[in-house]
Design a protein that fits this description.
The longest helix has 22 residues. The protein is of the alpha+beta class and about 220 residues long. It is globular. Strands 1-2-4-3 form a four-stranded antiparallel beta sheet, with helices on both faces.
Length: about 220
């Protein structure tokens, strides 16, 4: 799919429940998702990939009463990903990140690795004690990853629909998410569109003069 096609189409809101994304394509998307960057390589996410009828039904049943209408979007999707974010950033998580970087040989020398670790800890302390926005900062990384995955899906001919219409308390409880120190941030449904329910009206956006300032 080229950029013009992406720009001139509505986001899919309804999926064809009879169509399933090939396993090879899903594995490509998950490989891409694993590679997606985050600030200081903090990797604050855990992703729950739902592909079974039971898994999707469980999520649909736990969206919360006011969001029940979104259930059909999930059950008709081929796959839905629960994208979670760490609720806090304990020292052991940082240690795990640094340990994996050392194991993978991310930096050419120990000195460079140690300097990176010092700078990362300093930045994390800035978020924690000065800006006091550690969770919000990590949540922004989740949304950055979400956007990248949506573009990757489009490249592979898969429709991707983000969903914020859910109660994170009920979703977290249903899937035991908070036990791992995470909480649900956003859902991403993947699949192929129900062509009978596709929007065909014009895309509506502000004019360039209202959106862009050049300096």
């Amino acid at each position: 799919m080229d950029l013009d096609q992406i720009m001139n189409k509505h986001l899919t809101r309804y999926f064809d429940g009879t169509k399933t994304i090939p396993e090879e394509t899903i594995q490509q998307l998950l490989k891409f998702l694993r590679s997606a960057p985050t600030s200081t390589n903090i990797q604050p996410n855990h992703f729950i990939v739902l592909s079974t009828t039971e898994g999707k039904a469980k999520l649909a049943a736990n969206l919360g009463e006011r969001f029940a209408d979104n259930g059909e979007k999930i059950t008709n999707s081929s796959h839905t990903i629960i994208m979670t974010t760490r609720a806090d950033l304990p020292a052991e998580h940082l240690d795990a990140v640094f340990g994996k970087e050392r194991e993978d040989g991310r930096f050419p020398t120990v000195a460079k690795q140690e300097n990176w670790e010092y700078m990362t800890r300093d930045f994390v302390n800035l978020r924690s004690y000065t800006y006091k926005d550690t969770y919000h900062w990590m949540e922004k990384q989740t949304y950055m990853v979400l956007g990248l995955l949506m573009m990757a899906a489009a490249e592979l001919g898969v429709e991707a629909m983000p969903l914020e219409g859910f109660d994170p308390v009920t979703v977290d409880k249903a899937f035991g998410i908070r036990k791992s120190g995470h909480t649900t941030t956003v859902l991403l449904a993947l699949g192929y569109p129900d062509l009978n329910k596709q929007y065909t009206t014009a895309i509506s956006r502000f004019e360039p003069g209202q959106l862009f300032t050049f300096a």
